[in-house]
Structure formats: C-alpha cells, structure tokens
C-alpha cells in the first residue's frame, strides 16, 4: 500500500473506532422526546415512582426484575440510560441472557452474588460479589447472576447505556420459541426427544 493510502486508511479506521466508542442510542435533535399526541407535560413526565413499591416490600418467592426502561418510563426515550432492580431470593438465578444494545453496570446493594459472562472467544469470567461491589457485563455478551446463599436474599441495581437495552434470554430463545426440533437437535448434537424435554420445562 502506498504511504499516502496507508495514512488515509489509518485516519478512516480511527474515525470509525471513535464513532463506535461514542455510540449510544441514536442522538436526538430536541431536549427530550414526547410520546405522539402527548398533552402538555410537567416534571411528572421526568419522574418514575414505580420503584416506591420496593420500599419495605417482602422478598419475592422467585427471582424478580423490575425495569425502568423507555417502555415503563417514556421520558428515557432518546436519553441513552435506563435501570433495572434485580431481587434474588436465596438460591435463585437470573438465567443466562444477553442485552443486545448495552453494557450492564451492576451494583450489589444487599447480599452476595455469583456473576459471570462469556466473551466472544468463549472465555468465562466469573466473580463472587460482596455487598457494595460493582461489576460490568460488556455489551452483548452472554451472562448470568446467581445467589448461592440459600438463606439470604440479594438485591442489585443495574444501569444501562441505552433507554432500551433489550434482553435475550438464552433458554427462552433456544427452547421456548418455535425453532424446529430437528434444527435444535442438529445444532446441539442431540436427539429430538432431548430437545422436547428441554422445551417442556420452559412452557408458560
Ligand atoms: C415461554 O413462552 C411463553 C409464551 O411466550 C411465556 O408465557 C412463558 O413465560 C415462557 N417461559 C419462560 C420460562 O420464560
């Protein structure tokens, strides 16, 4: 490659990388985005009170997630941020999943939590979190959380760099969608009966 072309290539690729590094949700050209046909708004539009229900609430019987994304809180549309509150009764798991549009910054505010993610080379990174710890799950990677302490609940708050990070649950998309049994049996190098057994455990 000629020197001039090399320089041009370097400039173009570094601009592309810079673009990737700053990319969140698409930028908006207004201060905030109102839902279509919205009546005039006030401060209440920017306030989300659903999590008040968590104050002094009993521990739920199974793993529970409460979200504040643009679906529940429309003022987040265009702001590239959202939250989830995650409650893990003793021994419960948040099954393996990914968030296609954002990293997840998990802050453990109560209890202990086993967490892990798998990178694109299939390397597993795990950690035992203590109350007060923060862990980041990189964008789009498969991850999980598990409260191994059967006696005590754990509580975490997760922040996302998207108003709609999305959740793809692996058990669900593999074995609770309508992907053909034969395709799954071939994909997992097993038989259709094994696939049907896995599917039956997830039917709602
Ligand atoms: C499986 O899919 C059904 C229908 O979409 C849903 O109601 C149910 O909650 C799903 N099961 C799990 C374990 O997510």
Automatic annotation (TrEMBL):
Pfam family, one: Cupin_1
Keywords: Apoplast, Glycoprotein, Manganese, Metal-binding, Secreted, Signal
Signal peptide residue numbers: 1-23
Positions that bind Mn(2+): 97, 99, 104, 143
Subcellular location: Secreted, Extracellular space, Apoplast
All residue ranges annotated as the Cupin type-1 domain in the record: 52-196
Gene Ontology, cellular component aspect: apoplast
InterPro entries in alphabetical order: Cupin_1, Germin, RmlC-like_jellyroll, RmlC_Cupin_sf
Residues that coordinate or bind oxalate: 94, 99, 104
Molecular function (Gene Ontology), one example: manganese ion binding
Function of the protein: May play a role in plant defense. Probably has no oxalate oxidase activity even if the active site is conserved.
Assembly notes: Oligomer (believed to be a pentamer but probably hexamer).
Family: Belongs to the germin family.
Protein name according to UniProt: Germin-like protein
